[in-house]
């Protein structure tokens, strides 16, 4: 009876661990999707603003020309202005919403903008990866908001920031893009070293995630050290002085 009870307890505990991991993973995916929607909405808002400005400028020019011409612009002039406005709006709109199939992470972005672009990159390429790799991507995605806050406080040329930038703009996108080039039928095939392409992908993503976490911890430690130094200076300077 005891053995049966222990087995049931172990099964329940294992089920709890699995559901907890799934809940955390789903939470990270939802948060990443929310951030991606916010970025897309911001892009649509910028596009709408550019369309409004273009249409407004065309309307203003049309009104000015109509006031300057003795007979006004006439019906054909009005239709031409409307056609130009529609064409400009379509050109700006299509240019604003068109995006490549696979996003990129430009290397010349500022720290905070690069983290945002990398966040979008791993969210939009997540579907290309196997489930274990998706779990690593979700864990990496969950840490990006705090990483962004940390990196935006340091210069782009800071050594630790440079390490993070290389990972986000070069190494990790290169890893995912290289994996996408492997034929699907070969990705799970175990090689002579006992590992498949899927296994190597998961290990590389885990190592990259840990590297980003270490970089964030180093930068946070630098800020904390600076704070403690300033606090000790003020304490030493003023603690024995009366107001």
Account of the protein in words:
With 243 residues, the chain is mainly α. The protein folds into two domains: 2-97; 111-238. It is built from seven helices and no strands. Helix 1 packs across helix 4, helix 3 (111-125) packs antiparallel against helix 4 (131-151) and helix 3 runs parallel beside helix 5 (159-181). The radius of gyration is 27 Å and the shape is flat. The mean pLDDT is 77.
The proportion of residues in beta strands is under 5%
The count of strands amounts to: 0
| SS summary, helix count | 7
- What would the average pLDDT be, to the nearest integer? 77
How are helices and strands ordered from N to C? Answer: HHHHHHH
Number of domains: 2
Share of helix, binned: over 70%
The end-to-end span amounts to 75 Å
**What are the low-pLDDT stretches, counting only 5+ consecutive residues below 50?**
none
The Rg value, from CA coordinates, equals: 27 Å
Q: Structural class of the helix and strand makeup?
A: mainly alpha
Question: What is the overall shape?
Answer: flat
Major sheet summary line: none
């Amino acid at each position: 009876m005891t053995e049966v009870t222990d087995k049931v307890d172990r099964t329940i505990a294992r089920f709890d661990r699995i559901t907890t991991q799934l809940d955390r993973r789903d939470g990270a995916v939802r948060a990443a999707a929310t951030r991606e929607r916010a970025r897309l909405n911001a892009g649509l808002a910028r596009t709408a603003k550019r369309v409004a400005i273009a249409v407004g400028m065309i309307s203003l020019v049309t009104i000015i020309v109509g006031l300057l011409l003795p007979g006004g612009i006439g019906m054909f002039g009005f239709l031409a202005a409307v056609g130009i406005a529609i064409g400009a709006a379509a050109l700006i709109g299509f240019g604003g919403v068109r995006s490549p199939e696979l996003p990129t992470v430009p290397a010349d972005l500022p720290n905070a903008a690069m983290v945002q672009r990398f966040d979008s990159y791993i969210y939009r390429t997540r579907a290309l990866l196997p489930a274990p790799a998706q779990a690593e991507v979700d864990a990496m995605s969950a840490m990006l908001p705090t990483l962004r806050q940390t990196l935006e406080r340091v210069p782009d040329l800071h050594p630790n920031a440079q390490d993070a930038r290389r990972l986000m703009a070069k190494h990790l996108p290169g890893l995912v893009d290289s994996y996408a080039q492997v034929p699907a039928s070969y990705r799970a095939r175990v090689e002579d070293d006992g590992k498949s392409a899927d296994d190597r992908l998961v290990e590389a993503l885990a190592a990259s995630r840990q590297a980003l976490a270490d970089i964030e911890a180093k930068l946070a430690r630098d800020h904390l050290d600076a704070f403690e130094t300033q606090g000790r200076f003020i304490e030493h300077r003023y603690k024995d002085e009366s107001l």
